[in-house]
């Protein structure tokens, strides 16, 4: 992608074995598959109808003001994949203006020694901290896995994004904040499509960029590192446009939070807790049931 600016193309159909059947460790992304419109939405020819395809994303929301009681305009990015420089601009958007942007970076790490229980505890703490950030007036939250080491490992990026997204949806505060991911994990088009589909407004794949720059230094990719990085981002953009066009969607903003995926091989309780809104329905039914139940 960094060399040609396009996503690798394979044969029609995907005959790869399901991740759940593999004996090797798999990324969480591999357990999700894209859905596509079969009847109601005709697919879009993203190449010949490029003029109607939009890759711009809105990030965050301004605080209410007298002129705009619904909040000021959000920041806008030309595409959901942010360069390191663009991420730093967003990180330092806070200007002290009560009606402007206020950004907060939250680490998505957990104690390795605590195992699965520690991971669950870290996700709960992350969700609580996101709600506190909104109460404090922050309208852009950056979820970052930088700083991990042998003692603190990153929470899977897709899990962190989706857990926070659905927590805020249940709390009724999701529209008050933009979620930006800073992670070394995503690198393929499918990864970015999932992250956007489960709530990320923008993603900074810093390790993918470092890899591209390293390949240029080693002579594996010709040209300047900045050009190779630009081609990589272009390939991701074209790949996601191809994905959304199969759903009959012409803007990435319409794909944002749409969750047009199916999970194969994941525990149902895990999916209900972190990737759907079903916990809200179950909690409501529990509150209306009798004390004996």
Structural notes for this entry:
By secondary structure, this protein is an alpha/beta fold. The protein has a domain at 70-270: TIM Barrel (Alpha-Beta Barrel). 37% of the residues lie in helices and 13% in strands. The chain is built from 9 helices and 10 strands. The strands form 4 sheets. The chain has a 4-stranded parallel sheet, sandwiched between helices. Helix 2 (115-135) packs across helix 3, helix 4 crosses helix 6 and helix 5 packs across helix 6 (225-246). The longest helix has 22 residues, at 225-246. The model is unreliable at 62-70 and 280-293 (pLDDT under 50).
Secondary-structure blueprint of this entry?
Blueprint: E1 32-34, E2 57-59, E3 75-77, H1 84-91, E4 103-107, E5 109-111, H2 115-135, E6 140-144, E7 152-154, H3 157-171, E8 178-183, H4 189-197, E9 202-205, H5 206-217, H6 225-246, H7 252-255, E10 261-263, H8 268-274, H9 278-288
Parallel strand pairs: 4-6, 6-8, 8-9
Antiparallel strand pairs: 1-10, 2-3, 5-7
Helix pairs in contact: 2-3, 4-6, 5-6
């Amino acid at each position: 992608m960094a060399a040609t600016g396009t996503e690798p193309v394979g044969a029609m159909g995907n005959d790869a074995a399901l991740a759940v059947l593999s004996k090797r460790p798999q990324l969480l992304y591999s357990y999700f598959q894209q859905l596509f419109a079969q009847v109601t939405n005709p697919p879009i020819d993203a190449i010949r109808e490029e003029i109607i395809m939009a890759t711009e994303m809105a990030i965050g929301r301004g605080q209410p003001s007298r002129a705009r009681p619904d909040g000021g305009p959000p920041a806008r990015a030309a595409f959901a994949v942010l360069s390191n420089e663009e991420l730093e601009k967003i990180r330092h958007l806070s200007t002290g203006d009560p009606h402007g942007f206020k950004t907060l970076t939250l680490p998505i790490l957990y104690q390795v020694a605590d195992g699965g229980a520690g991971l669950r505890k870290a996700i709960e703490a992350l969700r609580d901290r996101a709600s506190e950030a909104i109460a404090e007036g922050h309208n852009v939250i950056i979820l970052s896995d930088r700083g991990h080491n042998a003692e603190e490992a990153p929470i899977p990026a897709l899990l962190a994004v989706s857990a926070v997204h659905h927590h805020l949806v249940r709390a009724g505060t999701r529209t008050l904040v933009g979620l930006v991911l800073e992670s070394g994990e995503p690198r393929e088009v499918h990864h970015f499509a999932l992250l956007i589909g489960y709530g990320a407004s923008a993603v900074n794949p810093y390790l993918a960029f470092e890899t591209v720059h390293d390949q240029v230094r080693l002579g594996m990719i010709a040209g300047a590192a900045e050009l190779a990085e630009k081609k990589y981002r272009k390939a991701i953009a074209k790949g996601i446009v191809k994905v959304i066009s199969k759903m009959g969607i012409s803007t990435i903003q319409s794909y944002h939070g749409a969750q047009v995926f199916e999970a194969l091989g994941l525990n149902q309780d895990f999916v209900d807790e972190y990737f759907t809104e079903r916990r809200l329905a179950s909690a409501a039914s529990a509150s209306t049931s009798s004390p004996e139940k």
